[in-house]
Write a structure and sequence with these properties.
Number of strands: 12
CATH topology: Cytochrome p450
Largest sheet: 5 strands, mixed
Biased composition (Basic and acidic residues): 51-64
Shape: globular
Order of helices and strands: HHEEHEHHHEHHHHHEEHHHEEEEHHEE
Radius of gyration: 21 Å
Family: Belongs to the cytochrome P450 family.
Bound molecules: protoporphyrin IX containing FE
Region (Disordered): 51-71
Protein name: Cytochrome P450
InterPro entries: Cyt_P450, Cyt_P450_B, Cyt_P450_sf
Oligomer: single chain
Number of helices: 16
């Protein structure tokens, strides 16, 4: 596991684990030992089990495994108290606060802006007849979208693009580069929050500063950690939704035609089920983030000791034949689709409405404007990014009839 060949197609190995070792202890490339949970029913239960903590201090190796679980550089950048690292009651309080700023209404109002961004990016390569869809489309779209939403001024957004590039390029590689990018982003956000305090606007950062719960406000430090986690959690995931999703469509011409015909006829219903199916079939998040047993417990008949790390393999659970009919087939019309691509339980993806909006807009703009889009590489040659949690392509070369 976790080799290049595995990254190209991890699904046969996951099928084997589901069948023969559904709760399996393994040594990760970082040297940390962890339990992998691969069956859908176990995965769903595990994600919602309050006996599993998200706080890395509960890791039995917390003292000597320092920095091996979690976001590189998060200790030094003072990022420990973000949603994905904390448990109730702190989690409940912070999640409620950020939810008052990150509302479905704010997301829905953002749709025209996302479409404009997608169109502008497509304009950049439409006349050329070729493009790398990761670098020129999937990567910049979410970073500009979330910067806009947070209220990062336009003149600073290219800095974010560079920092995000460092984070993605170094994913799975040397941690130094990611750590540096994380620190710069974090310092920038702290400064932006400080500057905005005196001049609140309609953006998400102003919303975070205003957010209050029973008279209690986010501290500047909490607001900066929150803005950062929105960026961190909402960036590479969305790159991979657009990248993996487009790739799956290009490799399944019948399904792609179905979607393209529906869109051409003005029917956007299929687009909704399509985005959910693409998340299930080859989702952006391969493994859910770290969880640690706070007491001895049993998952799928397997005893887990206090302090032992548990990783739920979403990619394996979402192809479990005990839950999904014909799980290895991409079926954009699939209706019974309670996939775990956004997680489950109290840590269920906070950004799901934005992710869905970006996924729908990106795919419909791309297929609408470049109807003859095709893969310009041998699938066997495509490289996937390393790294434990996320699953995504490094590049996606395509060609099409140039559009003036
Ligand atoms: C949590 C997936 C996009 C913000 C999660 C989790 C998953 C996930 C699986 C739960 C992790 C766990 O329990 O270990 C995705 C996917 C996305 C996406 C597949 C894109 C297709 C976004 C976006 C944002 C975002 C756009 C925000 C702008 C968050 C936050 C959490 C989270 C803040 C933590 C919630 C909590 O701990 O309470 N996401 N996400 N995500 N996501 Fe997303």
């Amino acid at each position: 596991m976790f080799t290049h060949a595995f990254a190209a197609d991890p699904y046969p190995a996951y099928a084997w684990l589901r069948e023969h070792a559904p709760v399996h202890r393994t040594v990760l490339p970082s040297g940390v030992e962890a339990w992998l949970v691969t069956r859908y029913a176990d995965a769903r239960e595990t994600l919602a089990d309050p006996r599993l903590s998200k706080n890395p201090l509960h890791h039995s190796e917390a003292a000597h495994g320092k920095g091996k679980v979690g976001i590189p550089g998060e200790r030094s950048a003072n990022l420990m108290t973000h949603l994905l690292n904390i448990d109730p009651p702190d989690h409940t309080r912070l999640r409620r606060l950020v939810s008052t700023a990150f509302t479905p209404r704010r997301v829905a109002a953002f749709e025209p802006r996302v479409r404009e961004l997608a169109d502008r990016l497509i304009d950049g390569f439409a006349g050329r007849g070729r493009a790398d869809l990761i670098h020129e489309f999937a990567f910049p779209l979410p970073i500009y979208a979330i910067c806009d939403m947070l209220g990062v001024p336009a003149e600073d957004q290219d800095d974010f693009r560079d920092w995000a590039g460092m984070m993605i390029r170094h994913g799975g590689g040397p941690r130094g580069g990611v750590g540096r990018a994380v620190k710069r982003m974090r310092a920038y956000l702290a400064d932006l929050i400080h500057r905005k305090r005196g001049d609140l606007g309609d953006d998400l950062i102003s919303g975070l500063i205003r957010a209050s719960d029973h008279g209690e406000h986010l501290t500047e430090n909490e607001a900066a950690a929150m803005a950062f986690i929105l960026l961190f959690a909402g960036f590479e995931t969305t790159v991979n939704l657009i990248g993996n999703g487009t790739y799956a469509l290009l490799r399944n011409p019948g399904q792609r035609r179905l979607l393209q015909d529906a869109l051409a006829a003005g029917d956007t219903g299929l687009l909704r089920t399509a985005v959910e199916e693409l998340l299930r079939y080859d989702g952006p998040v391969e493994l859910a983030t770290w969880r640690f047993a706070t007491e001895p417990l049993t998952i799928g008949g397997q005893r887990i000791g206090t302090g032992e790390p548990v990783l739920v393999v979403l990619a394996a659970a979402d192809r479990d034949p005990d839950r999904f009919g014909d799980p290895d087939t991409l079926d954009l019309t699939r209706r019974d689709n309670p996939h775990l691509g956004y997680g489950h339980g109290i840590h269920y993806c906070l950004g799901a409405p934005l992710a869905r909006l970006e996924g729908r807009t990106a795919l419909s703009s791309l297929l609408g404007r470049l109807p003859d889009l095709r893969l310009a590489a041998d699938p066997a040659e495509l490289r996937w990014r390393g790294g434990l949690i996320m699953r995504g392509l490094r590049e996606l070369p395509v060609e099409f009839e140039p559009v003036p």
